[in-house]
Automatic annotation (TrEMBL):
Domain of life of the source: Bacteria
Iron-sulfur recorded as keyword: yes
GO CC, one annotated term: cytoplasm
Pfam families attached to this UniProt entry: Fer4_19 (PF06902), zf-CDGSH (PF09360)
Domain Iron-binding zinc finger CDGSH type positions: 28-71, 180-217
Gene Ontology MF terms: 2 iron, 2 sulfur cluster binding; metal ion binding
Protein name: Zinc finger domain-containing protein
Keyword set includes Iron-sulfur: yes
Keyword line: 2Fe-2S, Iron, Iron-sulfur, Metal-binding
Organism: Candidatus Moduliflexus flocculans
InterPro entries per record: CISD (IPR052950), Divergent_4Fe-4S_mono-cluster (IPR010693), FeS-contain_CDGSH-typ (IPR018967), MitoNEET_CISD (IPR042216)
Regions annotated as coiled coil: none
Length: 219
């Protein structure tokens, strides 16, 4: 049974072959709806966010998904859904490629540890533990996490937020619930994740970095 506070948490619903519908569950007055006494009715507020990539009114849905026959089918190769562990002297870094949205904050933020094109591409002894932790906390998709002394750290305590990344996905933080949850990748976080908005991810509803390949632009 959820507490009243939990019920007020926002929630994202993936509508079938259509937009993400965001309900915030905080009742608000509807300006144009009143009873005979002139009292406004209250309702929860819903916002529809484009996920086909075709809306002319991004980030909001304008109905284009119907015209272009958008499908939300997940066609990801499940064999790629595998977590790798990179063990260092003081910290072990975990990475699941299937979750990665290719934000590149790790390779740009700490190139001595996250080496673009390197083999291995993650080197957990390449810098201080503090810097590694700070960098992993910037990972928007949950593809990266870490363990120290056998205890894994992945989620953070944050206010619910959806950040619309320029030319990229919706970055969800603060444990916003997916109302009709898809099959989650191995060790996926429900506190932070990235949702595709270009329409091209194979791992819908999650971003798999394909927006880079198709040069998605959100202008
Ligand atoms: S927004 Fe990243 S794959 Fe669609």
């Amino acid at each position: 049974m959820k507490t009243s506070e939990e019920r007020k948490m926002p929630q994202i619903k993936c509508s079938l072959d259509g937009p993400y519908v965001l309900n915030d569950f905080i009742e608000r007055e509807v300006a144009y709806l009143q009873n005979e006494q002139g009292e406004k009715y209250c309702r929860t507020v819903g916002v529809s966010l484009c996920r086909c990539g075709g809306s002319k009114n991004k980030p909001f849905c304008d109905g284009t998904h119907k015209q272009i026959g958008f499908s939300d089918k997940n066609s990801a190769d499940s064999t790629l859904d595998k977590r790798q562990n990179f063990e260092g002297k003081e910290i072990t870094i975990h990475f699941n490629r299937a979750l990665c949205s290719s934000s590149e904050r790790c390779v740009h933020g700490l190139p001595s540890v996250f080496v673009a094109g390197g083999k291995p591409w993650i080197r957990p002894d390449g810098d201080t533990v503090a810097k590694i932790i700070a960098t992993i906390k910037q990972c928007p998709s949950g593809a990266l996490s870490y363990s120290i002394d056998g205890v894994e750290y992945r989620d953070q305590v944050r206010e619910p937020m959806i950040t619309v990344a320029k030319n990229g996905p919706y970055e969800v933080t603060g444990s916003i619930e997916l109302a009709n949850p898809p099959t989650l990748c191995e060790c996926a976080s429900t506190e932070h994740y990235t949702l595709c908005r270009c329409g091209a991810s194979k791992n819908k509803p999650f971003c798999d970095g394909t927006h880079w390949e198709i040069n998605f632009t959100s202008e």
